[in-house]
UniProtKB/TrEMBL annotation:
Annotated PANTHER family: HTH-TYPE TRANSCRIPTIONAL REGULATOR XRE (PTHR46558:SF11), TRACRIPTIONAL REGULATORY PROTEIN-RELATED-RELATED (PTHR46558)
Classification of source organism: Bacteria, Bacillati, Bacillota, Bacilli, Bacillales
Keyword Manganese assigned: no
Name of the protein: Helix-turn-helix domain-containing protein
Naturally occurring in which organism (per UniProt): Oceanobacillus kapialis
UniProt cross-references to InterPro entries, sorted A to Z: Cro/C1-type_HTH (IPR001387), Lambda_DNA-bd_dom_sf (IPR010982)
UniProt domain HTH cro/C1-type: residue ranges: 6-60
Keywords per UniProt: DNA-binding
């Protein structure tokens, strides 16, 4: 199954074996062996290939018909909130009760980001005004 998926994914990207191997950091012979099924990649190599083709390792190995893992399709509101906290350099200690925020959807997260932008802009205005006064 792996060899068929590798060939199919490479062709979908419109790449020759030489081009794909070069982009993956492999020799053409190594990629050819994987595509012929005469050699099996180790786990680290599978990760590189999966990342390059933007598919899950399970898909590469034929364990799933879904190109992406179920985790990839799951919206993680806490991950998005933590991303925003890092992006806007907001100290999260005591910032919120995590249990109340876990069920936010994509639209609510966008609203939260807009609020963070507003708060940061207002703080910058305040600091600028304070510096001008000093």
């Amino acid at each position: 199954m792996l060899k068929n998926r590798l060939i199919s994914l490479r062709k979908q990207k419109g790449l020759s074996q030489y081009e794909a191997a070069d982009r993956l950091g492999f020799s053409r012979g190594k990629l050819s062996n994987y595509e012929q099924g005469t050699r099996q990649p180790d786990y680290g190599t599978l990760e590189v290939i999966a990342d390059f083709y933007d598919v899950s390792i399970d898909y590469l190995l034929g364990r799933s018909a879904n190109r992406k893992s179920p985790k990839d399709d799951t919206y993680d509101s806490m991950e998005k909130i933590n991303d925003l906290l890092r992006k806007y350099n907001i100290d999260q200690s005591g910032f919120f009760d995590i249990e109340k925020w876990k069920n936010l959807g994509p639209e609510e997260i966008k609203q939260l980001e807009s609020y963070f932008q507003f708060v940061v802009q207002e703080a910058e205005k305040h600091n600028s005004k304070k510096q001008q006064e000093d």
